[in-house]
Amino acid sequence: MSGNRVSKQKPCQHCKSRSPSAPPGTAMIHYEKFWLYRHCSSVQQRDMQAQKAGQLFSGLLAMNVVFLGSAFISSMIFNHVAITLADVWILLSILKVLCLCWITYYLLGTSRQPHAVLYRDSHAGPIWIRGSVLLFGSFSILLNVFQIGYSAILMQCKSRVEIVFPSIEILFICTQALFLWHHSKDCIQVQHNFTRCGLMLTIATNLLLWLLAVTNDTIHMEIESQLREVEQRFEGKAPFPRNESAACTCPNTTICKVFQKGYILLYPFNTEYCLVCCSVLYVMWKNVGRRISHHHIPHIKPKFKLQGVVFGPLLGISAVIIGICIFMLYQIQATGSAPNHQVFVMYYSYYIVLLPLMSVGAVIGTIIHALEKKELDTLKNPTRSLDVVLLMGAALGQIGMSYFSIVAIVATDPRDLLNSLILSHSVLLIFQNITQNIFIIDGLHRQPFAAAIEARPTGHAGEQAVASELPGEEETTSSSNQEHTEMKEEQNHEAYDQRRVNMLELGQEIRKVSLSYIHSYSHLSWKRRALREISFFLVLCNIILWVMPTFGAHPVFENGLEKSFYGYSTWFAIVNFGLPLGVFYRMHSVGGLLEVYVTA
């Protein structure tokens, strides 16, 4: 037989070396076969070569699909007469329908076969990743609903494709989110090559959707920026070329304005959703046919607990509150017809204060990692390998834009106040990205702390440590009995005394919880405490640095310095490459820092 076959003799030999704690059913192993390596004498060697061949051919499939879609999108940008946006939508709709067919077959067929999922990767699909898929997927669905409503209002000047495409997109997002939520940890052991091809086709489709979303967002920003320049100069020397969609304006109605504003507000979440789905699908692709030994399965899985952190949340929350205030002021000032010069000074000053604090925290955390005596985790982990690649790759967006800004400022006038702030911001941003990547990557490769080393005191000793600082329960009980007897004599003060007793009990409980938290905090070692403080502070800082560019704060394009130096088209291409990667880097850094916090 040419397909996957259940071996009856080899698994028995394999079972002799297995631990009794291995997952049940591992005796029925589906070894991979490939026609190029059918003459291999060893079953394990043939299985390994077949796995590599399957990954190669599925990768080639994805590469060809991405190149075809990129050619369509590029043709639409440079020659919108021959290839229109509707043609690109038709191609992507065909790809999404094919992906929906494969996902449905996987949910109803492949995953339900006997011995299909013998292993599950505990590192793959953490809760924050799956939560991001649901969150961004929900916003993307709402985005498509707004697009359908907006197109329905302007039906007289829009094609039906602009309604059909978002409808298919909603179905695709819902099905893919359900698939990733339940099966992101699967190490599928049947139909290896078909599953790899399906996963790679879905990855390629998400990449093309991301590329189209970035391109469309770029066009909207370009039109808005050029109209702003026209309003500032009160002249039309460089008018934007009109097309059919330019004449299709939104009528002066409330519902149309709501659809239009909601579409613009939710647009960045669609790009984030596509990138997150690509990362999860890639880990699933790497786990196809993977057999995990019992040594890879953690016996104690660390959980997120808000213990041992005091100063990190305080500093982080302060940075978030200040950042939100500056972001609101920036949005009010920068979205006007004439952006104020002072708002850019305030925006870059905030970054210049925050980035050194983040860099110092990352450097201190890296030094603490070097002082630790924990062993490095050298086991094979596709999720961790992907996290490292994504951190390094996504950081190239902000680093690249920073170097372009440095060259433009040094070549023009670095002594100007705004230019000197932009120069300092660019240098500090490069240093912060590098130090944070080193801290996160080093922390991801560290083994978690043993729970028995620094465990909280339990039993009678722990209870006595907390109870020794609390008032005796016997005294409280006796006093409450006396109060109850007095209340019988004085019925007019019954309600007042009852509230007093409740307040005393509530204060006692709050004091008990506070003392317990301080007691657990004091028993943490200074290294572990410092790592948790730094990680939590960096998590909150990366959240606010993700929120500001995601919801429309783009000073790198709106200050006009780099745009006038490189030219409009060149600088816009640089921003188009770096800005989405920078947003994705901040979001992915939050996940990596949470992993470091939990393992600490």
From TrEMBL:
Say which domain of life the source belongs to. Answer: Eukaryota
CC annotations in GO = plasma membrane
Here the segments flagged for biased composition (Basic and acidic residues) are 483-494
Similarity field? Belongs to the otopetrin family.
Question: Mainly resides where?
Answer: membrane
Q: Does the keyword Metal-binding apply?
A: no
Topology in the lipid bilayer: Multi-pass membrane protein
Q: Where in the cell is it found?
A: Cell membrane
Q: Biased-composition ranges for Basic residues?
A: 7-17
**Keywords, in A-Z order:** Cell membrane, Hydrogen ion transport, Ion channel, Ion transport, Membrane, Transmembrane, Transmembrane helix, Transport
Signal peptide bounds: none
Q: Which InterPro entries match?
A: Otopetrin (IPR004878)
**Region Disordered, annotated ranges:** 1-24, 462-494
One GO molecular function term of this record is: proton channel activity
What protein am I looking at?
OTOP3 protein
Gene label = Otop3
- Mind telling me which residue stretches traverse the membrane in this protein? 56-82, 88-108, 128-151, 163-181, 193-213, 264-285, 306-330, 350-368, 388-411, 417-440, 534-553, 565-585
